[in-house]
């Protein structure tokens, strides 16, 4: 037994003794119950980790039932949230767009028909659907063919005017340009998989005798592949798109199959290329070039595809921390509220929603958290988590959060490999966040007494060694929290190796998870 007495005086004294090695502004238990004083001491001790000596750490714990603050250190300080930003974007989208919201992708034309000939342009119009796959463009093309059209005498017009033409988010790093998690945003796009990584192509390599075979998912000639790779005793290959181009250069050696998710340079042109390819497959020739532009007023609808509702899209968005979904939803909110599919309009919707729900400290530069100029305080995140519990859409949003220790990717998400075999497993539902030198974990946990808690842990400016285990220790400690009793020992977790990846597991894709 670590401590046999936990009176208010003793608990406060022990918490004070932890200050020397604890966080910069260690918390004092404000609640007289022995369990709260014990909790304060333990979190202070967890935050005394040497990796945080020159770092910033902000932690807030509240009772979700009555709003009592059980612990706070630097709770009001502005910190980089990384993907914790998606808590705000997802909640604002559920409130603004509604859980029944669906994206539509349409095929239109105002041209007259002459038998099987469409004597004018064929228009492909999008509203931002990130779930469009090559097979969905194929299905639209099949409907055009089923309508009896065999020749389009005009052009294929790609209408992406639902959103503006700004493709990359505020402050995004230029060296992320070809990374799928920073893909350009457009009202017309396509995904290569059912994670719905919009705006990217999977490029795969495999040894084929003494040559390296390259394939793409989806099959497309949109990218220009320059294959300089050779077979070898091991796989050490680089697949990289050249800045500002459609050219993907592959170098290195290949022994076993390997694949990389690569962002395209122009998602509108990529989607149009997939649709044109599908039209050809179904026997529909387009005589004119592919261009961009708005559909003419009054154009007739030839085919349409609706996405899954937002209630379902929240799952891959939040579980897998999909940046592109966040930015598309941001622009969709702007379009709905002000008629402007822009970051500025959408971010105003998100910040207005946050402030209307009592959030005071926030600075949103994008919807995903990829910007290092995004800023929230742990107290602001805790306030949001508390305020949304009464919303009619809360259950769907809550269910979309990653669940600690659940191995299913679409349940555990970015927490599926964390806190397994602890009281937090299957209990903690929280949003992760990761950038280089930044990690955060904020969400919900039920205490040992059955009390619902909200928490936010934000760690910034550490130099080496991912401190995600510090977040986990706090979450596990909260799962063991009791107002009436003390905890015998702190959770023991293995520290991540110094070379462990700092990004979200899902950002690195299955080969790394």
TrEMBL record:
UniProt-listed InterPro entries: Beta-lactam/transpept-like, Peptidase_S13
Enzyme class, broadest EC rank: hydrolase
Protein name, entry field: D-alanyl-D-alanine carboxypeptidase/D-alanyl-D-alanine-endopeptidase
Family indicated by similarity: Belongs to the peptidase S13 family.
Entries under PANTHER family matching the protein: D-ALANYL-D-ALANINE CARBOXYPEPTIDASE, PENICILLIN-SENSITIVE CARBOXYPEPTIDASE A
Encoding gene (name): dacB
Pfam families: Peptidase_S13
Keyword Hydrolase: yes
Range of residues in the leader sequence: 1-29
Key words of the record: Carboxypeptidase, Hydrolase, Protease, Signal
Molecular function as annotated in GO: serine-type D-Ala-D-Ala carboxypeptidase activity
